[in-house]
């Protein structure tokens, strides 16, 4: 079976689901919906489970149509509560996730509370958990390893990559380097790399810089539309109105695995700050190349983001901004502080546009 391409839109009273099934027979299809559940089948396409962010009802107003030219089913479903705003309709990965994986209950609590489960729930327990044989090791032989990565959940990742490490990150032996030492080494490397002549040349001969600063990426117009609508009405608006994913991007969202992580408050704080750091580097790259990608794009983003390049674990937004500003003035081709402040403003716009 093939998971079809689909997208969702809404108005105050209806949820509209557009499903692309170019090779299906219009006369042979099944639709099931109840509450937050929606399923669709039209051989060879099968939308096994769509978990909606709000409830829909069957009251005679529902309607389905098929466009033979485009090969799309358009299904309009009434909302149980008229006027309710359904959040996250463009987050296709989350919508495709099974209900139990979308639970807000932490995994540790689910295991600990297993004694309180009903018999019916116990029968649904997934026994096919990967088994790893236990190997006893003397505690003294285990080297101390420092954590890094998303939520500081990883360690030992780079042990076998010492020869290739310089192509991935700038720090040597991260598993044996604590956070404070990583930061000291990063600051020393930046200070050694800064070239006053390069900086002054970009500062005084800034025609190329001023040219790229005039470029308007996609989020500028989207942000203007959002601000204009917010001024007209204080009601929430679907992010889908302002940010439209391409078909390639929607396909990628459908392929993503919906993962949940057990992060404490401090870890979430590190994750959010790391996201800001990566977004700043992304905004710089889009601006200086005027929206075009090239063979240096991934290097630029990695080099400007201390989160990616030095496995930095930031503790404040101020530290993120200072780190990004320093790295812009040390590493890329264009080293101008106007590009730093431009990336600040662009990142703010992207974050204000929502998830």
UniProtKB/TrEMBL annotation:
Its main location: cytoplasm. It is found in: Cytoplasm, Cytosol; Nucleus, Nucleoplasm. Residues 1-90 form the CS domain. It comes from the Eukaryota. Keywords: Cytoplasm, Nucleus. GO terms for molecular function: unfolded protein binding. GO terms for cellular component: cytosol; nucleoplasm. The keyword Nucleus applies. One of its GO terms (biological process) is box H/ACA snoRNP assembly. Belongs to the SHQ1 family. PANTHER family: PROTEIN SHQ1 HOMOLOG. This is Protein SHQ1 homolog. It comes from Pelecanus crispus.
